[in-house]
Amino acid sequence: VNRPTGKALETMKKILKSRFITTAHVMFGREVEELTEVEIYKTIAATAKQSISDNWIKTNKQYAERKEKQIYYFSIEFLLGRLLKSNLINLGIEEALKEVLGDFKLNLSDAYEVEPDAGLGNGGLGRLAACFIDSLAAHRLPGHGCTIRYQYGLFEQKIVGGNQVEIPDNWLRDGFAWEYRKPDKSVDVKFGGNAYMRDMGNGRLELVHENPMIVMAVPYDMPIVGYHNATVNTLRMWNAEVNRDFSDYGMLTQEQIQQRNDYRTFVESITRYLYPDDSTFEGRRMRLIQEYFFVSAGVQSIVRHYKKTGMSIYDFGKKIGIHINDTHPALCVAELMRILVDEEQLTWEDAWAITRDTIAYTNHTIMPEALETWGIDMFRPLLPRIYMIIDEINRRHMEEVRRRYPNNEDKVRALSIIQDGVIHMARLSIVGGHSVNGVAKIHTGILKSTTLKDFYDYTPRKFNNKTNGITHRRWLMGANPELAALIDTMLGNRTWHRHPEKMDGLHDHVGDKNFLEQLMKIKRLRREGLARYIEHHNGVKLDPDSMFDIQVKRIHSYKRQLMNILHIMYRYQRALSEPGFLTQPVTYFFGGKAAPGYYIAKETIRLINVVADRINKDKRVNDFMKVIFIENFGVSIGELVYPAADVSEQISTASKEASGTGNMKFMMNGAITLGTLDGANVEIRDAVGNEHCVIFGLKAEEVMNYYATGAYSAWDEYHTNEKVRTVMNQLVDGTYGDFRSLYDYLLHANDEFFILKDFNAYDNARIEVMRRFKDKDGWARSAAMNVAHSGGFSSDRTIDEYAREIWDIHPVIIS
Ligand code: 26Q
Questions:
Q1: By alpha-carbon position, which residue is closest to atom 11 of ligand 1?
Q2: Per-residue pLDDT tens for 433-484?
Q3: Which end of the chain is more exposed for a tag (fewer CB within 10 A), N or C?
Q4: Which H/E stretch holds residue 195?
Q5: 3-class DSSP state of 424
Q6: What are 232-273's pLDDT values in tens digits?
Q7: DSSP code of 442?
Q8: Helix (H) or strand (E) holding 70
């Protein structure tokens, strides 16, 4: 499908205009001219939905008729952001609608801004899920999402007096335009009670689950629109509600009333809010309840739907794939076993073969503190039947392990799903599925060689790599339409829209002066746009010709925002004592949320804001440096930020960042990576070459050796490295107030992320970046090279690999 022009465009506009007017009448009983801002947005969304619904119905029908294998991507987070623009782009009606609105003196871009972000995720993992469902639909693949409909998404961040303050994200306040409640598809989810096997007398055992608490799971479906095709897949979000036959009438004792109130309070808290933690595991009971809630609802509804197609339950694994995004949905393994054994009456052996064929697992971290484990003490009373099943899975698994490694109890322990009273969810995921993948080459390598080594040795063929990707439709075509148009012009066609790897055709043009000039013009335009936003929000005026050096991501010690701000403090202090020290104007940006209970992360935010305030008010250095903290960074602000960047800060301690995906968004928009050899930075470097990025610091192997030998001392580093010592002392000598917590953290935790150790290398790398930036032509060429070689980081490529190598699913052409 190509963009309509001429007569086709006129016809499309006519249809859209009449729909738009009628929709305003039907929804609000108003003429278009009388609509409020929110009503205008809703009318546009409803108009778009009229272009979606026919294809959605068709897609569902044809998937069922053709009995094609379906994939369900289970993720406890889907960080979707706003949906109007991306839906219009995918439908191919953005231009036409813009013109229709123009007839009413309405501006489409203003309407975009009315939509709240669907912020049902913390960061990388949740945004990856959102990119994946976009790419599935773009490639006409039968793949759907399954998640929780949180009433409150990730908190909104305000900075008050330099500190982060968290405001609840009431994103559903004005209703969510894209969801369809499907009460008739509700299922029951059972918690607690008493589970045991009863002898039926005929040699058969039957499961009895007495007195469970029953929660009703109600699905809300969202259409996921394919890019210029007729595919519309589904994202199903589950909401917890009180059971059908729960009602408040009748004669009740005080005690019964109390019980009912407790029940209602419990149920309504299940899907109330998203846990704001993204890198440390805390064994919170409500979190486990959330996990089982959406897993059980999702798997039950998949089996129910599958049976309606009339296919044999023994073919389930050939026709259904369930993907678990990290271990949060790992209970899919046990829940599918429960349904197949208890409800479908299959033998354990048959059920187990089907379950393993069905399930595949992606790991997103090697950080031990993030690995999910649940104590039996909490788990068993809450999910008694699921516990029995996991116990049996493990018993049989252990038998197999002992056959393979006789007299090797160390191996048995290392491979056991249940060990010392805790259930290891990663182990359950590996044993219960047929595929385990990491999210970048180096990450998969570390999984195999260290974190999951015992499992790799046991079942090497399960392990594979799928380097992450991002949807170029949102992050390039949507966020940077001028750059997309320039690429169209340079390549002479729009083939790259569907085949992003074709962007590498730009490689032949990096010597083209005119191209580079246009590219730099667009970069300048985007910097101006961000500068306008910052002036409005922060009240700080920026130089759009300064180098925009940006680090936006969740605040975490291993991502080393602290190293970045310490280095800025160091340069500022040098600038004050050495006139002429600064020669290149730079604007440093930070953005990102800290988990509310993460003290060091919050102190880092406070330090950034205090330093920013000081520097931005200092006339002596202001022509050369400014520091900005971007409040409430998320998907929508990201769309403004990534295109404006010259330098992409990707400075995590090597081995710690599984992949990173922000690095790809920056690259695709022509920023140069300043980074360590960590996660996908390694592959970005391989794609662009060392001349077009700046790499520094310890290698993953060196970091892991230091951990293994304990040969690093932060104290020694502090005492021998003068740059480090001077700037560290500023944390406690009153220069910026009291930041002893950060000082102590660095010294007493022995600088666990090698901030001091990498400081000089980072200093040199930043000097190198500024040197390169001064060479305008060289810089433009590097920017162009980054754009040209970013096509391989489209999630379209990633999804094709999952489809072929893990899921075995194929495009279905909807007609
Ligand atoms: C788990 C249990 C209890 C509470 C919270 C959590 C939880 C929630 C979210 C744990 C982890 C997360 C998110 C992790 C995450 O975003 N990881 C990132 O995944 C990206 C996509 O693969 C990678 O690019 C990043 O490197 C990785 O850090």
A1: 278
A2: 999 999 999 999 999 999 999 999 999 999 999 999 999 999 999 999 999 9
A3: C
A4: strand 194-199
A5: strand
A6: 999 999 999 998 776 666 788 889 889 899 999 999 999 999
A7: H
A8: strand 70-74
Q: What is the 3-state secondary structure (H, E, C) of 333-395?
A: HHHHHHHHHHHCCCCHHHHHHHHHHHEEEECCCCCHHHCCEEEHHHHHHHCHHHHHHHHHHHH
CA-nearest of 386, 466, 458 to 418 is 386
Using only the alpha carbons of the chain, give its radius of gyration: 27
Whether 128 is in the pocket of ligand 1, judged by its Cβ within 6 Å, is yes
Reading the block at residue 645, the tokens are: 């960047």
Range 774-777 contact pairs with CB under 8 angstroms and sequence separation of 24 or more:
774/583, 774/584, 776/520, 777/516
> What single-letter DSSP state applies at residue 117?
P
Residue 273 DSSP symbol: B
Contact 131, 77 (CB under 8 A): no
Measured from the CB, is residue 659 less than 6 Å from ligand 1? Answer: yes
What DSSP assignment string belongs to 518-557? HHHHHHHHHHHHHHHHHHHHH-----TTSEEEEEES---G
CA atoms within 13 A on the CB side of 169: 25
pTM equals 0.98
Q: What's the N-to-C CA distance of the chain in angstroms?
A: 13
Q: 98 is written with which tokens?
A: 């813009």
Q: Among 326, 363, 635, 684, name the best residue to mutate to test ligand 1's pocket (greatest count of ligand atoms within 8 A of Cβ).
A: 326
Of 784, 791, 794, nearest in space to 523 by CA: 784
For atom 9 of ligand 1, the residue with the nearest CA is: 278
pLDDT per residue as tens digits for the range 355-376: 999 999 999 998 888 899 999 9
